[in-house]
Amino acid sequence: MEFAELIKTPRVDNVVLHRPFYPAVEGTLCLTGHHLILSSRQDNTEELWLLHSNIDAIDKRFVGPLGTIIIKCKDFRIIQLDIPGMEECLNIASSIEALSTLDSITLMYPFFYRPMFEVIEDGWHSFLPEQEFELYSSTISEWRLSYVNKEFSVCPSYPPAVIVPKAIDDDALRKVATFRHGGRFPVLSYYHKKNGMVIMRSGQPLTGTNGRRCKEDEKLINATLRAGKRGYIIDTRPLNIAQQARAKGGGFEQEAHYPQWRRIHKSIDRYHILQESLIKLVESCNDQTQNMDRWLSKLEASNWLTHIKEILTTACLAAQCLDREGASILIHGTEGTDSTLQVTSLAQIILEPRSRTIRGFEALIEREWLQAGHPFQQRCAQSAYCNSKQKWESPVFLLFLDCVWQILRQFPCSFEFNENFLIMLFEHAYASQFGTFLGNNESERCKLKLQQKTMSLWSWVNRPSELSKFTNPLFEANNLVIWPSVAPQSLQLWEDSEAYLLK
Amino acid sequence: MEHIRTTKVEQVKLLDRFSTSNKSLTGTLYLTATHLLFIDAHQKETWILHHHIASVEKLALTTSGCPLVIQCKNFRTVHFIVPRERDCHDIYNSLLQLSKQAKYEDLYAFSYNPKQNDAERLRGWELIDLAEEYKRMGVPNSNWQLSDANREYKICETYPRELYVPRIASKPIIVGSSKFRSKGRFPVLSYYHQSKEAAICRCSQPLSGFSARCLEDEHLLQAISKANPANRYMYVMDTRPRHRVQSWWATQKDIGRIIVRISSKIWNDEKIRESDEKKRLNAMANRAAGKGYENEDNYSNIRFQFVGIENIHVMRSSLQKLLEVNGTKGLSVNDFYSGLESSGWLRHIKAVMDAAIFLAKAIAAESASVLVHCSDGWDRTSQVCSLGSLLLDPYYRTIRGFMVLIEKDWISFGHKFSERCGHLDGDPKEVSPVFTQFLECVWHLTEQFPQAFEFNEAFLLQIHEHIHSCQFGNFIGNCQKEREELKLKEKTYSLWPFLLDDQKKYLNPLYSSQSQKSAVLEPNTVSFNFKFWRNMYHQFDRTLHPRQSVFNIIMNMNEQNKQLEKDIKDLESQIKQRKTKQTDGILSKELLNSVRPESPALKATLSLKEQALLPVNNVLRTIEGSSPADNRYSEYADEFSKAEPAVVSLEYGVARMTC
C-alpha cells in the first residue's frame, strides 16, 4: 500500500494552528506518510511535527467555508487547525484518520525512520539478559540462566533467556509452564543482595475448579527457599476475583501444597477500569471552568490516585517482605503481564539503588517490561480520548511511571533522572520513531526484525546531549532502601503529564 | 504554678497518630509552667506550649491506661496513654487551666525573657516603622495626607492613630463618614500604588438602612476617587457572600414590595451580571437591618463589585471539618478528596484569592482606586487588602516587606488576633482561621511563583506558630489601642527581630529579586492549582512528608557557589597582582627571581581553599541530619537515614499478612 493513496490533499496554505502555551501560527500544512507538519516557513522554524501515530481522536467543525480540525493526542495535548475550504478540511481529516489507524505494524514510522544522529552505542544490545545475569552471577549460586524458551515454544511472552533455580532442569520448566497461565512459569525478577531473598513472578496457576496440582511447580517454588525459611505469594487480585478465576481454569496456590508459603491478596485494578479512570481524569483536567467542588469530586470519581495508592502499597508490601521480613516472594495476578510487573518493578525502585540511576532504570524497563512481555502494542494502542473501549487498552505503564514520579517527589535527590525522563518514556510508549516499544513481547519483536529494521530508543537517549536533559542535578547516590509514604495526603496529581494542557 | 498538681509522670505512651496497629513510644511526661514536655526512650523531646493547646480530651479508660488527646492550634495532635487515671486527671485539669488564660498578663509573652536589655527590646519594636512604609509608597503627597483625626482614638478605637486620607477630605467629612460606618471604621488608605496613582482603601460597611444617606460619606468616597487623577471611576468591593437570605426574605413580607422595586432596577442595569444578583440581595438584606452596602444612586462614578468570601463562622467550621477528615486513621484516597470537597476549605481559599486578584487587576490594569469592605472591615477586608498589595508590590514578597504587610494590614488595622486565635478564655464563636487562610493564600502563590518570594514555607509556618504562641507581643490584643494599654512594648518582645536573626532558615534559594522588579503577580486560579497544604496541616506528622528536601540541598549549593565565586575573585586579583609584578619584573629585568618563589605560595592558597570547601559541605549536611530541635527537615533526614518503613509498615504489619 502506498501512503499516497491515503493522502488526498498533501498541502494546504493559510492554515492556522492553535495549541496550548504558544501563540497561534498561520502557515502551510503538509501531510506525509507519518507526519502532520505545519510551518509558517519563516526563519526556517519548525512549528509542528506531529506523528500520526500520536493522534488519539479527531473532531471536525465547520463554520461557513472555514473548517476546524481538533486533534487530541495520545500524550494528552489538544491542538486545533483552522483550514480554509471545506473540501480541503474533509480531505485532511479523512487522511489523518486513516494514517493514524494503520493496521500493520510494519507501516509504522520506526520502519521508515533514519536517524540523523551518530549512533555511539546500539541500544538493542545495551541490556542483554546475559549481561544482567552477569551482574548477579558472583552472588547467586542457586540460580542459572535457562534457554528453555529459545524458540519461544514454552512461553510465547517470555524472552529466550530467563533466570530459574539451578535445581530445576529444563524439562521440569516445560511441565511447570503447562500449569501456569500463558506458560509463564515462575522466573527470577530480582535478587536482594543484602539477604539473598528474591522476587519471582509468574502467571496464575491453572488449578481450575477441581484443584489441579503440579509437582514440578511445587518443587520449583519451594526450591527457592532455604530450609526453614518462609515465603509470601502476593496475588494482585482480591480473593473473590481469584476464586472466580478458577471457573475459567485459573486460580491460586493452595497453601496446603506450598507449606512454606503464605498467600496475600491485594486489589490492583486492570484493563478498562484503569482506562476509564484515565479518561475521566483527563476529561476533568481539560475542563478549566469548573468550580472547586466539582473539580475535587471529579478527581475523586476518576479514582486515579486510588489506583496509584493501591499499586504503591502493594509494591511497598513486597519490598517490606523482602527487606524487613527476610522472606522471598512470588508475585502474580492473572496473566502476570500487568499489575505483576508494576509491583515487581516498583519494589526494585524502592530496594535497589541501581534502578534509580538512568541506566539502571532503562535496564529495569527492558527487563521487567519489555522482555517480561508487557503487551505495549495492545495497551498503548489508544489513550485518554478514544471511544473504542477495547479490553486490552489500559494505561498500565503510565500508572507505573506515575508511581515512580510519586516516589521521586518524596526522594528528590535519590534519582539520577528527572521528571522529563519519565514523560519522555510515556510519550515514546504511545508514539515513537523508535522500535523499542513496538510489539507485545520478544517473540513478536523478533519476527518483526526490529533490531535490524528499526532504531532503539536507548541508542538515542544514551548520548550525552540527550542525557543532559534527563539528568537530575540534585542526584546524590543513595544506597538505602527508600520507603515512600502512601497516605492520600502524600500523593499528588502528576499535572505535568496528566494535565499538561493547564500548566 | 497553682494549677500544677503533678509535674512528672513516667511510663506514659505516645501513640502514633496514623497507626492502625497502636504503635507507640514510651517515655516521661513533664508539666512546666509554660510547656508540656514528653521525652521518649530515645531522648527525643516533644515540647508543647500551653498556649498552643486548642483542646484536651480525656477518653474512656482502657486496659493499658487512661488516654489523653491533645489538639493544638498549630495542628499538632498527640495521643498519650497515662498508666494511672489519677495522674491523667491531674494533668487534664492542669492543662485545661493553663491553656485558657483569663487575663492578658498571664500570657507567656509577659514572662518570656530572651535575655535582651531594654534598649535592644525597644530597637526590636522599632524595626518595623509604618510611617516609613507609607513614605516608601509615596504618601503623603499632593493627593494624600496624614490625618490627625484619630490621634487620640476618638473617632475609631480599632484603627491606628495615624491614618492617611485624601487631602481634600476635611475633618468634618471624616467625622461624618465615621458615624455612618460600622464601628466608626471610615474609608482610609491601605496601599498606594505610586506609578498608577491608584489606592487601595478599606472601611467597614455603611449603616445606611433603606433610605438613609450620608453626604459626608459620599463626599469622602468622591475624594478618594478624585485623589486618583489617572481614572475617573473607582471600585467598591463588598467581600461578603450570599447569606441565607431567601428564607429571611420570605418572612419579611412588608418589605417585599421594596425588594421587587429594587430588583427590577437591578435587572435593568446592564452592568450587573446575573451572578451578582443573589449577592446584591444579601447586601440588601443587611441594608434593611440598618446595615448594608452603599446605595449606588448616591455615589457617582463608583462601580460596585461583590465577591463571595464567607464569614468567620463558616470558615471555622470548614477548617474543623478538614481537620476531622485528615485525622482519620487509614484514610482512603476517595474519603480524603470527598472530605476535602465537603469541608469547602479550598473553595474558601480560592474565593479569597479571586477577590485579591480582582483588586490587583483593577489597580494594575485600569489604574482605578478600590475601596474594600466586609462587615466590620477587619477580617475579609484585611485578607483582600493585604493579598492584593502582595500581588502588586514585590516589596511585600521579601522577608522584611512581609513583616511590614502584616503589621500594616493586620495588626495596625485591628484584626482581632486575640479573639480570632483564642488567646484568652473567651467566646469560642469569635475564633476563626482568617489569618491562617491569608498565609495559605500566600503559600499557594509561592507554589505558583517559586522565584517571586524571598522567604520560604518555613517562614510562613513560623509566623503561624507565633500568632498562637503568645511568646511575643505582636499578636496579643485586638487593636492598637488595646496593645498600648497593655504596654506591650515595655513588657514583651517583638517577634520580627528574632525572625530576622534567623533569616537564613527562611530564605528561598530560588528567589530572584531582579526578575521581580515591579512585577505584578497574575496567579492562575483554575481549581486544580489549589492543593491541600500538607506541610501546614500535617506539619508534625512527619511520616507524610517527603524524605529529602530540595530546598536544603539548593541552599547548600548556593553557599558553595558563593564560596567558589569568592575564591575566583581572590585568585583573579592575585593573578592581576602577579601580572603587574611581572610587567614590573620585565622592566627591571628581575622576572625569573620574582616568579619562582611566588608560585608555590599561590598553589598553597589554592589547595587550602579547596580543603576549606569540603568541610562547609559536611558541616551543613551534619546539621541537616543530627539536630532534631532545628526543624522538620532535619527530622526527615533522621528518619531517612534510619530507613524505617514508615506508613507502609504501620498499615500492613505482619499480623495482617494472613488471608
From TrEMBL, chain A:
Pfam families: Myotub-related, PH-GRAM_MTMR6-like. SUPFAM superfamilies: (Phosphotyrosine protein) phosphatases II, PH domain-like. Coiled coil: none annotated. It comes from the Eukaryota. InterPro entries: Myotubularin, Myotubularin-like_Pase_dom, PH-GRAM_MTMR6-9, PH-like_dom_sf, Prot-tyrosine_phosphatase-like. Belongs to the protein-tyrosine phosphatase family. Non-receptor class myotubularin subfamily. PANTHER family: MYOTUBULARIN-RELATED (PTHR10807), MYOTUBULARIN-RELATED PROTEIN 9 (PTHR10807:SF56). This is Myotubularin related protein 9. It comes from Bos taurus.
UniProtKB/TrEMBL annotation, chain B:
Residues 124-537 form the Myotubularin phosphatase domain. Residues 554-581 form a coiled coil. Belongs to the protein-tyrosine phosphatase family. Non-receptor class myotubularin subfamily. SUPFAM superfamilies: (Phosphotyrosine protein) phosphatases II (SSF52799), PH domain-like (SSF50729). GO terms for biological process: phosphatidylinositol dephosphorylation. It comes from the Eukaryota. This is Myotubularin related protein 6. GO terms for molecular function: phosphatidylinositol-3,5-bisphosphate phosphatase activity; phosphatidylinositol-3-phosphate phosphatase activity. InterPro entries: MTMR6_PH-GRAM, Myotubularin, Myotubularin-like_Pase_dom, PH-GRAM_MTMR6-9, PH-like_dom_sf, Prot-tyrosine_phosphatase-like, Tyr_Pase_AS, Tyr_Pase_cat. SMART domains: PTPc_motif. Substrate binds at residues 311-312, 374-380. GO terms for cellular component: cytoplasm; nuclear envelope.
